[in-house]
Amino acid sequence: MLTILAAGSVFFPGLFVLSKQCLKHIPALRWSEGDAVIVSARLVSSVQAIMASSAGYIIASSCDDIIEDQHWLTSAYILFAVPYFVYDIYAMFMCYWYKLRIKGHEGDSGAKPLGAALTSYLRREFLMFWRQGKGDYFQGVMFLAEVSTPWVCLGKILIQYKQQHTLLHKVNGATMLVTFFTCRVLLFPFLYYAYGRYASIPLHMVPFNVPWQVNLGAAMLMAPQVYWFSLICRGALRLFTGSSRSRRSPVTAKDDLDGQAPSQPANGYSTHATEQKSDSH
Fold this sequence. Notes:
mainly alpha; 75% helix; 0% strand; globular
């Protein structure tokens, strides 16, 4: 157990430091300290997400009995990922600290990084507190929530460096929308559905057949996922509606240059009518 904890304590901070130094000193890049810190933190989050979702797939696909079956990787990866929580608080604080010095990020809220880290930690540890040596399948499925994290990280990097106009940003946004909804918003409804099938009870009866602590924890963890998903939807709506407006605006300008009549002024009078009224006086 101590060996696994030590490995996680070395791996995540070590990857962060290595990535930051490479981004700062590679001749083709030579990024500033702030840029290197922010991108390195996103990189480590993405690596952890890939590892967690891979572990989750292995665990969930290996359990035939979703309650009784156990897999050694469940406890092992939880121990390995515990140091990541401590590192993640530090890394997100550093990201916030440097983002305040980047134009366009002065209005960020300081509560967001800590809240995101706390939610991630609770989601990762939630079933560990209640499973009592059972339910490795459910823990594996919860690991799969991390599938959306690399896309979220890439989206933040693209926005930070003003790449919202690129095709990559649009494709990443659509992928993030789908993965976040599938792996985070639908996560707990799926877990309830899986337990209902196992216990041969209807889905709507599952909340009445599990401990109240499980229902409370699920509600507390699902609420921020729904809120963040609504923010992602609003951002996607602005992205694609903004793109369509930008495609239409050059056509209007071209019409004006070709000598066609300009659009009606805001006061409701046409230019021609206004000129006739002035001549009459």
